[in-house]
Amino acid sequence: MIIALSLILAFQLVGEVLSRALDLPLPGPVVGLCLLVAACVLRPALADRLRPTAQGLLANLSLFFVPAGVGVVAHLPTLRDHGIGLAVAIMASTLLAIAAGALAFQAVARRTGSVDPSALKGEADD
Amino acid sequence: MTDPALIWSYLAQGPLLWLTATLAAYVVGDALSRAARRQSWANPVLIAVILLAVLLGATGTDYATYFQGAQFVHFMLGPATVCLALPLYDNLPRVRRAAWPMLAGLVAGSVVAVVSALLIARGFGITGPVLASLAPKSTTAPVAIGIAERIGGQPTLTAALVLLTGIFGAIVVTPLLNALRVRDWRARGFAVGVAAHGIGTARAFQVNQTAGAFSGIGMGLNAVLTAVIAPWVVGWLG
């Protein structure tokens, strides 16, 4: 697990350095993500080695947002001035964006024949 | 026996107390979410944040003190983001086949997220730095803050708006896409990743691995596209 964690941190580190050195629009961890995908394609054994640790971290991805979420509460006075406008804008635009993204994806998937039967949600799932 | 006030002042100085409290609040949030059979309104982040906010208020602790302990949890966001490479790698054949649908979903979701938010906010008389802070709210926090700084927004306000967007998106995605009868896990995951970044992705992983993988991709691609279109849309509507 320590080896896996060291490797994951190393990919993040290289990602951070590249992101800053090349002034990329992506943050370091996302650059690290791309590098790790490329590394796994070149050496599939790497994916097997990292998978248990990665799955453990991703299973609790929600946890890592909690400290920043508490920060929202600390900034509530800033939000209060434009509270209703910002709340309506966030709620309506998020609903619209999810719907637009999913419907556009689905429409083009049907048109280009890239429907994937194994990725369909069963009627009973929720 | 030592004076309880001395014990408290000791605990209030170190990271142990608030690190423990953060993990405990999440354990409670996650247990409640499970007890509610992962119904989307029982969002574990939201429950944990409310518990901790009440605790901070009750003990008169400020956010800076809290964050000294919580920063260790916060730090793990980076390595967890890198780990999204694994489900992406595992789904690579699926991803290759879905290039065109992803492009369509990305452009539609990303443009609608920025333009609709700014139009609505402007309708409420919001302009200037607050409007600029709102523009990148669907992207992952570090990118959103970078974008906000570049277009004249307030980084701390952006961070708060990003979090609120993520929590709201994670809560509404399941009922919304059920109502729209979107059954494709790839489309469901991808759309919530584009509109509600990592918190949406965390929700997608709770429900389905394929949805989680596509959500991670949607989040990454939207970070790039929003960095390109946000300055342009703010210039147009600001």
Automatic annotation (TrEMBL), chain A:
It comes from the Bacteria. The chain crosses the membrane at residues 29-46, 58-78, 84-105. The keyword Transport does not apply. Its main location: membrane. The keyword Repeat does not apply. It is a multi-pass membrane protein. Keywords: Cell membrane, Membrane, Transmembrane, Transmembrane helix. This is CidA/LrgA family protein. It comes from Paracoccus subflavus.
UniProtKB/TrEMBL annotation, chain B:
The keyword Cell wall biogenesis/degradation does not apply. The chain crosses the membrane at residues 6-29, 41-60, 72-89, 101-121, 159-180, 213-234. Pfam families: LrgB (PF04172). Keywords: Membrane, Transmembrane, Transmembrane helix. GO terms for cellular component: membrane. It is a multi-pass membrane protein. It is found in: Membrane. This is LrgB family protein. It comes from the Bacteria. It comes from Paracoccus subflavus.
